[in-house]
Amino acid sequence: MTTLVDTDLLSDIKAFGAADVSACFSCGTCTATCPLSDNDGTFPRRIIRYAQVGMRDELLSSKELWTCYHCGLCSDSCPTEADPGEFMAAARRYAIASYEPTGLSRILFTRPVAGSLIATAVAAFFAIFMYASHGPQDTASLALFTFVPEGLIHWTGVAVMVALALSGVVGITGMARGVARSEGVSLPTLLGGRAALSRTAAALWASLGIESLGQRRYRQDCKDDSPAEPLYRRRWLIHALTIWGFLGLFSATILDWGLALAGVKETGTPIPLWYPSRLIGTLAGFSLLYGVSMFMVNRVRQVNRAAMVSTASDWLLLVLLWITGATGFFIEVALYVSDAPRWGYWVFLFHVAVAMELMLLLPFTKFAHAMYRPVALFFYALAADKSKQTV
Ligand code: SF4
Ligand code: SF4
Q1: Which of 5, 82, 225, 328 could disulfide-link 24, Cβ–Cβ 3.0 to 4.6 Å?
Q2: Is residue 46 within 6 Å of ligand 1 at its C-beta?
Q3: pLDDT-based confidence at 314, cuts 50/70/90?
């Protein structure tokens, strides 16, 4: 296989916020401290070396890029202060921008002012688009779907999900093909016969269930989560609550739509708090808001390695998630107070616009790690299974 050398690779990754790793002399101290280096004893210095010598394809097809959860152990132990943990974070931003072909990610990650303007313009577009078809604001009860027609929200949401799926498939396919090639995984390896299928199913469960939802390695290996740290401040829990909250809100939206479709729910009317979709949505909203608020506080206070350096793109994701969660609660309050407050309509319009933006921009922001990390964890689980068999 021919290896193409990209002489601009290191300076390009620097534009995504990396510390200067040109001082790294491959001493291997970070490898000795990294909890992930048990696999082959070369991580993370191998990824740094790829960047130093311009091995772009090898860097982009490294599953470890995504399995690193920025615990900071490597940065604390580096004798040259090359900050390998922050380098890995920047390399992930670089990878997100490289997997998608439009160039939008690159702008959002490397040009804070242009990125903020784009984010504002997208939210404004959705808000104006919805408002253009608005109906009356009922003052007797908060008739949100009379103000912004439910059908308009539904079909705009469908269009956003289709765009998200297309962008996601392009990015994931490019990334997965690269990782599969470097790991020697092919379709017959995954699907050829019962043993292969069972290995694939086990790797899927390890990736999606045990690691992504259960946060196993995050819980076990993160040094900020020492027993002295109160549970409510542990990084893995904050991260898990954010994921569970987001997935819960997404599920509640789909359930709500399904119940309406099945004719079980009277659409457009306030429903009691114990109603399944409302209950799931409320609990998930608390979970999301707590997780995101803690991430924000940690970044402002710089409480751990992962929170020491904050880019505009880090804040963009947190702010969009926080607005989506907080406005959801404001709408809930507006629904249950008497006299249908007019502000409830405007908060609703804002909530829908930002939620649409969040989903549309998912593959182009830091949020894209939610797509790529499970894929990398899948290959990680396959490799772990293979090495078990060869022992
Ligand atoms: S500890 Fe620092 S100098 Fe040593 S290999 Fe890791 S990044 Fe390079
Ligand atoms: S930040 Fe933690 S997981 Fe990531 S490379 Fe460094 S030591 Fe390993």
Answers
A1: 82
A2: no
A3: very high
Residue 171 and residue 371: Cα distance in Å, rounded?
9
Nearest to 223 by CA among 74, 370, 78, 89: 74
318 lines ligand 2 (CB under 6 A): no
Of the candidates 32, 55, 49, 44, the residue with the CA atom closest to the CA atom of residue 89: 44
Centroid of ligand 2 to alpha carbon of 50 (angstroms): 16
- What does the pLDDT average to over 184-199? 91
**Is the confidence at residue 258, as pLDDT, over 70?**
yes
How far is the centre of ligand 1, averaged over its atoms, from the C-alpha of 68 (Å)?
A: 16
Mean pLDDT over the full length of the chain: 89
The bound ligand whose nearest atom lies closest to the alpha carbon of 48 is: 1
What does the alpha-carbon distance between residue 106 and residue 260 come to, in Å, rounded to a whole number?
A: 40
Report how far ligand 2's centroid is from the alpha carbon of 85 (Å). Answer: 5
The token pair that represents 188 in the structure block: 């017959």
Whether residue 224 is predicted with pLDDT greater than 60 in this model: the reply is: no
Does residue 217 carry a pLDDT above 60? yes
Cα 263 to its chain centre, rounded Å, is: 34
Interior angle at CA 219, CA 218 and CA 220, nearest 5: 95
Over residues 322-342, the mean pLDDT reads 88
Going from the Cα of 65 to the center of ligand 2, the distance in angstroms, rounded, reads: 9
Residue 385 has a pLDDT of 78
Q: To test the ligand 1 pocket, which listed residue (42, 80, 88) has its Cβ within 8 A of the most ligand atoms?
A: 80
Contact, 30 vs 74, CB < 8 A?
A: yes
End-to-end CA distance of the chain: 28
